[in-house]
UniProtKB/TrEMBL annotation, chains A, B:
Entry's Gene Ontology molecular function annotations: oxidoreductase activity, acting on the CH-CH group of donors, NAD or NADP as acceptor
Name this polypeptide is given: Enoyl reductase (ER) domain-containing protein
Organism of provenance: Chromulina nebulosa
Annotated Alcohol dehydrogenase-like C-terminal domain residues: 191-316
InterPro entries the record matches: ADH-like_C (IPR013149), ADH_N_2 (IPR041694), GroES-like_sf (IPR011032), MDR_fam (IPR045010), NAD(P)-bd_dom_sf (IPR036291)
Family annotation (SUPFAM superfamilies): GroES-like, NAD(P)-binding Rossmann-fold domains
Pfam family, one: ADH_zinc_N
Domain Oxidoreductase N-terminal: 33-133
Keywords, alphabetical: Oxidoreductase
Length: 373, 373
C-alpha cells in the first residue's frame, strides 16, 4: 500500500505526463470555450445575462472520416444575430450559438483539407471544434488558403466573409447600379455599408451618400471611404427631417438605397426614390431590439407601378457559397489592388464577444467588429 | 348675274363634286372623331361629364414625309387611364386623350409602312389620324401585319398589345416562375390577369389561384381559363378574411402574387407570401377612384430580408417595344397554338368609349374591353 503522499505524487506525475508528453507531443486534446445562449430575449438590449461561457475539451482522435478539427482564430458579431436571440429565432437556450468565424485547420481527415488550411464559415462559436463531414454541405464554409495568410485572418469575417459577400451581392446583383447613378447607404460606417459605398464609387462611379451617427464616423466615411456626402442621422428624428436632409444632397432624388437601418431611414429613402429606383433591404438595425410588428413601413403600391420601383430583401448566402457571382476572387482582387479598405474594431478574447455584440447597438464600434480568440 | 336659286344649285354641284369625285376618288379628307378630356377628376367614379366628343377633318395631303395616315379600327379602355384623368395625370383638359388603339394604314409616306399595314400603338383616341414621323420614336407603335388580318384587329389591343405584353413581361421577367410554384392573381377575369394565369399554368405548370368578383367570372376563370382555384373576393371584406380564404386553397402559402387590385388584396397576399416570394405590382384598381395617399400598404422590411422577398412595380413598355423578351412573336405563337384564350367585351362606336371605361370600375366587363370604332 502506498502512503497518501505517494498517491498525490503519483497523480501529479500522471498529470505531468498527460499535459507535457501525451497531450503536447500529439496534441490530441484541446480546451475549448464556447458561447452559449442562456436566455432568449424578445425585446430590449442584449446583455451578459443572456449568454454564458462553457468550457470543455475536444479530442482530435474523435475526428470522424471526412471531418476536420478547426481552431477558430477570430469570431464575428453581427447585427442579424439579434434576431436569432428572440424566442422565435434559431438560437436554443443552453446551446452554443452560431456565428461567422475564421480559423485554421489543425487536423484533417478530409481529402479537401490539410492542416494549416485557412477557412471562413458559419459555425458554432467555440474556440476549437470538430467539423463533421455532413456539416460541409449544411453550412457555408469557404477556403481562404492561397488568398490570405494567418496574419490577415480577420478578413475571413470581413471583406472575404459575410459582410463582403453581402455588400457584393447586394450592390452588384440586387441593386444592379448603372454608371453614375446616385446611391444612399445607411449604417455607412459599418462593415457592410462602407464596402457598398466604396464599390459603388469605384466600380460604377456612383454619387454615393451615406448616413451614420456622430462626427468621428462622418469624418471616416467622407475622408477614408470617399463618400460624396454623409448625413449624421443623429441630427434628425423624423421622416420629414431626414427626407429634407437627403434632398439637400440629392436634389433630384436617389436611384438606389442600401437599407441597413430601417425605421425613418426606409421611409425617407422611399420618399426620395426616383423612377426605376431600387431598395435592397439588408437589415433594419433600428428595429432589432423592438417589437417587429410595430416596425412596419408604409408603401403606396400604385406609385411603385408608375415609378417601376423595386424593394427586395436579400441575404448573402448565394454569393458566399458561389452560387451567384464570383465574390471571393473579386473581393480579394479588389482588396489587393487597394480598392477596398479594411476597418476593424478589435475585441480580445472570447469573453469579450458579448461586449463586441453590444457595441453594434450602442454605436461604439467602427467598421467590422472582430473578436480575436 | 345668276338668280339666287342658281347660286344654291351651283353650290350643291360643288358639294356633289367635292363629295363624290374629289373626296371619294382620291380619299384625301376624313371626318374624324376624338375623345377629349373635358374635366380632370381627382377622386370619384369617372362619368360622361369628364369627356367630350370632338369632330374634325383630316386631309391626307397633309401627311408629312415619313408620316402615315391611320384609320383606328378598335380602341382600348384600361384601368390605368383613370390615373391619367387626375389633375396631376397626363391628360390635358380640352385635348384628345391617349390610349392604346389598333388600326390600318390608309396612306403612307414612310418607307417602313404601306397602305393596308395593320398596327397597334399608344396614340390619340381619334378615329382617323396622321402619325408624324417623329412620333414613331416617341410612342410605342408595333406592326401587326403578317400576324393577323383585319378581322382579328382587336388582338392588337389585347393579347398582341398592352395587356398581352403586361402579362408576358410581368410573369416571365418580373415574377420569374419556377416550375410548379404557386401563383395568386387578382382581377383574374380581366384582360391581363387571365393571360397571366393561363401562361403560368401552361408554361410553368404552376398552381394558379385567381380572385375575381361574382359567380359568372368565377366560373369563367375556373372552367375556361383553367385556374386551379378561384376566390370570389366579394365574399370577403377584411385582410383577415381574405388571408384565410387564400390559406384554404394555398395552405403552404404562395410563391408569387400578380397584383392588379391593391388594398386588402395586397396585404392578404403579403401575409401568404413564402420565402423567396415575389409580388409584381401591375396596378391597384381598387384605389383608382380614391385618394392615393390613403391607399398605402404596410410592409415589415426586416421580414423581407429573412424571407428574401421582392415587391416590384412594373409597366409593359420594355416588352411592348421589344427591348426585353420576344413578346409579339411568342404571344402570337401561343395564341395560334390555342394556349391563349381571347375573351372580349365589345362596345360599338367611339361614343361608347366612356361607358366601356366605366365598365372596368363597376365590374360589368369581362375580359378585354374593346371599343369598335
Amino acid at each position: 500500500r502506498l502512503a497518501p503522499q505517494s498517491q498525490v505524487y503519483s497523480i501529479n506525475i500522471y498529470i505531468y505526463i498527460y499535459n507535457n508528453l501525451i497531450r503536447n507531443s500529439n496534441m490530441p486534446i484541446y480546451d475549448t470555450k464556447s458561447i452559449i445562449l442562456k436566455q432568449h430575449l424578445s425585446i430590449g438590449f442584449p446583455t451578459e445575462e443572456n449568454f454564458a461561457i462553457e468550457t470543455s475539451t475536444i479530442n482530435s482522435d474523435d475526428i470522424p472520416n471526412g471531418g476536420i478539427l478547426l481552431q477558430v482564430l477570430v469570431a464575428s458579431s453581427d447585427p442579424y444575430l439579434r434576431g436569432r436571440m428572440r424566442p422565435e429565432g434559431d438560437f436554443v437556450e443552453g446551446k452554443v450559438i452560431k456565428t461567422f468565424v475564421s480559423g485554421k485547420v489543425l487536423h484533417s481527415n478530409n481529402e479537401n483539407w490539410v492542416a494549416g488550411d485557412l477557412l471562413g464559415g458559419s459555425l458554432p462559436l467555440s474556440s476549437y471544434q470538430i467539423i463533421p463531414p455532413e456539416l460541409f454541405s449544411q453550412t457555408a464554409i469557404w477556403k481562404l488558403t492561397g488568398l490570405i495568410d494567418e496574419s490577415e485572418i480577420s478578413l475571413g469575417i470581413g471583406i472575404l466573409g459575410m459582410p463582403g459577400s453581402t455588400a457584393y451581392g447586394g450592390l452588384i446583383d440586387v441593386l444592379r447600379p448603372n454608371e453614375g447613378e446616385t446611391i444612399f447607404i445607411s449604417a455607412a460606417a459599418g462593415a457592410v455599408g462602407s464596402l457598398v459605398g466604396i464599390l459603388a464609387k469605384k466600380l460604377y462611379n456612383c454619387k454615393v451618400i451615406g448616413s451614420c451617427g456622430g462626427d468621428e464616423k462622418v469624418k471616416l466615411v467622407k475622408e477614408k471611404y470617399g463618400f460624396d456626402h454623409v448625413i449624421d442621422y443623429k441630427k434628425y428624428s423624423t421622416v420629414e427631417e431626414l427626407t429634407k436632409a437627403l434632398k439637400e444632397v440629392a436634389p433630384e432624388g436617389i436611384d438606389m438605397y442600401f437599407e441597413n437601418v430601417g425605421g425613418i431611414h426606409f421611409e425617407a429613402a422611399l420618399n426620395s426614390l426616383r423612377v426605376r429606383g431600387r431598395i435592397a433591404v439588408c437589415g433594419t438595425i433600428s428595429d432589432y431590439n423592438s417589437d417587429y410588428s410595430k416596425s412596419f413601413s408604409k408603401i403606396i403600391p400604385i406609385k411603385m407601378v408608375y415609378s417601376q420601383q423595386r424593394i427586395e430583401g436579400f441575404m448573402c448566402a448565394e454569393w458566399l457559397t458561389h452560387k451567384k457571382g464570383n465574390f471571393l476572387q473579386d473581393m480579394h482582387k479588389w482588396y489587393r489592388e487597394g480598392v477596398l479598405i479594411k476597418q476593424e474594431t478589435i475585441f480580445n478574447g472570447i469573453e469579450s464577444w458579448v461586449a463586441s455584440f453590444q457595441s453594434l447597438f450602442n454605436g461604439t464600434n467602427i467598421g467590422k467588429t472582430v473578436v480575436v480568440l
